[in-house]
Amino acid sequence: MNTPSLGVLVVGAGWVSSQHLAAYQHNPHTRVLAVCDRSLKKARQRAAESGLTDVACYDDLARALAHPGVDVVSICTPQHLHCRHVLAVAEAGKHMIIEKPVAINPDELGRMRAAVRRAKVRTVVSFVLRWNPLFQMLKAMIADNALGRLYYVEADYLSYNGSWWSGWNDARTLGQGVSAMLVGGCHAVDALRWFAAPGELEAATPVEVYAVSGGCRKGSHREFNPAANAWIDDAPPMEYDGLEVALVKFDNGMVGKVSTNAECVMPYRLPLRVFGSLGTVVDNRVWSHKYPGQSDWVELPTILPDSSQVSHHPFQAEIDHFVECVATGRESHCNLEDAVKTHEIVFAAIQSRERHQPVRLPLLGDHPP
Half-sphere exposure of 145 toward its Cβ, with a 13 Å CA cutoff? Predict the structure, then answer.
């Protein structure tokens, strides 16, 4: 690949920005030119911690976007700020990676999609688990007919989000976090779509969602810290239900179940189950017609999505993919157009809970880009 050198701006100096910066520094075709944050001190601190001595730091996005040589932007800000930042980056004509979730309501989602379509810029939404080694191995096996005709998939986001996470104070609120499924569970929602489609680089299109919610943590000041295995009695409360369960129908006939449990007292996990006419997957264990004489599960020796630590996630592979898409002018399988469908499941689940009935998709319409 004859890739030109691309100048990079990273917007947002929180937890996840450290991995974006590290991945750009290890890609031979990118150079970090600037870091921007609403706190100039934090921007400078993040640049210094990343070993970047020759970069500009800003606390104003418009000035940062005008920095000479910027071609691509990583948007690593809190989710309630994403819409205004995506609109500004699109208006500036820059390609972008957008951290998940990209929007906090359908209106924002539609405005962002329209802006990206007008600007004709390349996008990747950071559903980074699509580059997890287990995910990649399973998708390759599914594409090779290891499970036969798929008919049912399950994915669950099991975590205890709380004050241990630097972004929690924004994400825990109803106005800015919106729901447990949006804040973190959207990873499981995207996994559901990813494994409901047979193609190696294909995600299924949802057509109907029915959801319920519950749990016992909402409004409580008592909080569990899974890293320390300890309880805190004066934590700021989560303002939405911690448990959400949704059933999803897809246009290819697949049925899926996805849950988000943001109050399970246990280490983080994202379990998967995929069922087909000729085989089954349970996490990294496979039972398949491809293994004649099989008498026990075949266990895949690979990296599972079993940590909430941002350093555990495959940002290098994701950003290398993004750089290649920009260089070759092709669209990503994980672009904003595709990510709209994942987010629509989340927003439809909220509507379904409020109305006590199934919700049909798409919410935004399905007009071609």
Answer: 1
Question: What type of residue sits at position 7?
Answer: G
Q: What percent of the chain clears pLDDT 70, i.e. is strictly above it? A: 98
What burial letters (b/e) apply to 345-366, b meaning 16+ CB within 10 Å?
bbbbbbebbeeeeebebebbee
- Helices and strands per DSSP (H, E), number in the chain: 11, 17
The bridge status of strand 150-158 relative to strand 255-261 is parallel
Polymer length of the chain: 369
Q: How far, in Å, CA of 262 to CA of 183, rounded?
A: 10
Q: What is the pLDDT of residue 3?
A: 60
Q: Are 262 and 255 a contacting pair, CB within 8 Å?
A: no
Domains recognised in the chain with CATH numbers: 6-128+315-333 (3.40.50.720), 130-308+343-360 (3.30.360.10)
Phi and psi, residue 212, nearest 5°: -135, 165
Q: Are 249 and 208 in contact (CB under 8 A)?
A: yes
152 touches 255 (CB < 8 A) = yes
Cα dihedral 27→33→36→41 (10° resolution): 100
Angle (CA) 184-367-251 rounded to 5° is: 60
What is the rounded CA–CA span in Å between residue 164 and residue 352? 31
Give the tens place of pLDDT for each residue, 36-62.
Answer: 999 999 999 999 999 999 999 999 999
The pTM score is 0.96
